[in-house]
Amino acid sequence: MTSTIERPGLVIRTPRGGLSVRLRPRSVLVAAVLLLAILAVGVAALTIGDFPMPAADVFRTLFGEGRPGDDFIVNELRLPRLLTGLLVGAALGISGSLFQSLTRNPLGSPDLVGLTVGAASGALIMILVFDGDAYQVAAGAIIGCLITSVVIYLLAYRNGVQGFRLILIGIGISAMLEAVNSYLIIHSTLQQARTAQVWLIGSLNARGWDAVAPVAVALAVLVPLVLRYARRLPMMELGDDAATAVGVPVERTRLVLILISVALCAVATAAAGPVVFVALAAPQLAARLVGGGRPSPIVAGLMGALLLAVSDLAAQRVFAPVQLPVGVATSAIGGVYLAWLIGREWRRGRG
Amino acid sequence: MDEPLRAENVTLSYDARVVARELNVRIPPGEFTVVVGPNACGKSTLLRALARILRPREGAVYLDGALISAYSSKEVARRLGLLPQSAIAPSGMTVADLVSRGRYPHQRLLRQWSHDDEAAVAEAMVLTGVADLSGRLVDELSGGQRQRVWLALVLAQQTPILLLDEPTTFLDIAHQVEVLDLCADLHEQQGRTLVAVLHDLNHACRYGTHLIAMRAGAIVAEGHPADIVTPELVKDVFGLPCRVIIDPEAGTPLVIPAVTRSRTRSAAVVKSAENQL
């Protein structure tokens, strides 16, 4: 009788069955493919550029045996930029996947519900009002993002937070903050406005190790928490009552996951500016690759890393020697994707 | 004998709206308790409070002699299962996947799928007769099959107490009987304590071994259906004149609504309206 019952994916157990881990084979495969793709893009990002360098030289340089000039180009320019892109992409992918799962809606992504706009407001106030340096701007972005999230949460709270209400309130707050941002820019000098605009598009230009470190630390702390709390997401998909019935403290879990998502979004935006569409598109693309519903946040994170690294490479090379901010590339790629997605849903809805 | 689940002086409310005031309910062990009453009498609200979904505004719910709020969420879920009204099956999910989620309270970060989990899911699917459907998508099932799959999820939890919130809603009569027969088996053969909210008074009489009748947030009568179901009680609770006879099939009380004159009267109203036009 047991043989007719479908196995719940891939189960790995210790010999006596005391410990066991359950995986979806397709997710493991997709994660492996994404990792390989990230590796390939990484090698490409380190080798091509204004000073093309053979892969062998790049590897030698990475292990500290390269020529001094190569060492500067690879270890001080290209590697930190690549890592910033990968880590920011991963943070945005995970953040987006958590938010979309919690709101049960692909539109419930941090860049649409006002979190990135809130971060931008914080950063702009630092740039335009306090004339702050890079660290202060990053801090401003994080504080702006946190304040915005608290405001949205409180406004959306009524006996618990419901996804759709949170999205609508988020879109409203987002529109208001856009207005604030425009006001701030109009009332600034031309030089300040230029700095602000570059920041607003989102860019990885000239990101050094000081940009890598905060995102790396944030991911190191938050990813284990994601692994722990994301196990409750499949239960929460069944509705609040059913999730409570099988032993998930729903409101507390939702709050923790929102906090993790906001923190990741804030740190990512502080490092690279409000890079749009990655948080929206990465979980959706990952879902299509994995098939059958919600992708794990880790797969969405890998997808985000790949998406941002590819976008940055394209932004650097397509119009070389002009370097576009990565936000332009993600907007263009994301726009095409969104149009395709909406078009497909539209056709399906009518067919 | 100690009751596994009881509510003491609970006042239940949604926001400011009080639904039930100072209720005292004891769920007898090993019985199939059925809660009945007219729409909006607070019967589902009571069940939600017993399942710690709704926190009472005043009073407290006790599970196995201790405050239910003192247990961890998972610990409650190992003792008490709930089939809620508002469960959602995400699209594209297989039956086996859905049922296996009932094992969550028995799992840990590094104990995600033990031999016990596998056996419990298999047993639950066999009991509910959905083992053959295990590879099918939940979206593709009929209403009756889907309800049995949800029951399998709750059974996979392996709790001694089962709470069911209107398990027969939206099912046709054959599927209603099928689900209730399954509940009766669980109670009779496995000795589990069941509490169900049912709409149909005759189903409640046939399957319940302990009846709780509610009206307007208060408990009107409690006891074995054969002892308490009388025309007076039905009139009192539902405002429905009726006869109560013995069900020729099961020997339990059977409520037959009286033929009122409203049908003939409404025909007359239509007639006079037509005349006026």
Apparent shape of chain B: globular
Helix content of chain B: 25-40%
Order of helices and strands of chain B: EEEHEEHEHHHEHEHEEHHEEH
Low-confidence stretches of chain B: none
Distance between the termini of chain A: 40 Å
Number of helices of chain B: 10
As laid out across the biggest beta sheet of chain A, the strand order is: 1-2
Structure write-up:
The complex is a heterodimer of chains A (351) and B (277). Chain A has 351 residues and is an all-alpha fold. In chain A, 72% of the residues lie in helices and 2% in strands. Chain A contains 14 helices and two strands. Chain A is globular, with a radius of gyration of 21 Å. The two termini of chain A are 40 Å apart. With 277 residues, chain B is an alpha/beta fold. In chain B, 36% of the residues lie in helices and 25% in strands. In chain B, α4 (115-127) runs antiparallel to α5 and α5 runs parallel beside α6. The mean pLDDT of chain B is 89.
A few lines on this structure:
The complex is a heterodimer of chains A (about 350) and B (about 280). Chain A has about 350 residues and is mainly α. Chain A is built from 14 helices and 2 strands.
Could you give the topology of this structure?
The complex is a heterodimer of chains A (351) and B (277).
Chain A: E1 10-13, E2 20-23, H1 25-47, H2 55-62, H3 68-103, H4 115-129, H5 134-156, H6 163-186, H7 190-201, H8 209-229, H9 233-236, H10 240-245, H11 250-272, H12 278-290, H13 297-317, H14 326-350
Antiparallel strand pairs in A: 1-2
Helix pairs in contact in A: 1-3, 1-13, 2-3, 3-8, 3-11, 3-12, 3-13, 4-5, 4-6, 4-7, 4-11, 5-6, 5-11, 8-11, 12-13, 13-14
Chain B: E1 5-14, E2 17-27, E3 32-36, H1 43-50, E4 58-63, E5 66-67, H2 73-79, E6 80-83, H3 95-100, H4 115-127, H5 143-156, E7 161-165, H6 173-190, E8 193-197, H7 201-207, E9 210-215, E10 218-223, H8 225-228, H9 231-238, E11 242-246, E12 253-257, H10 262-276
Parallel strand pairs in B: 3-8, 3-9, 6-7, 7-8
Antiparallel strand pairs in B: 1-2, 1-4, 4-5, 9-10, 11-12
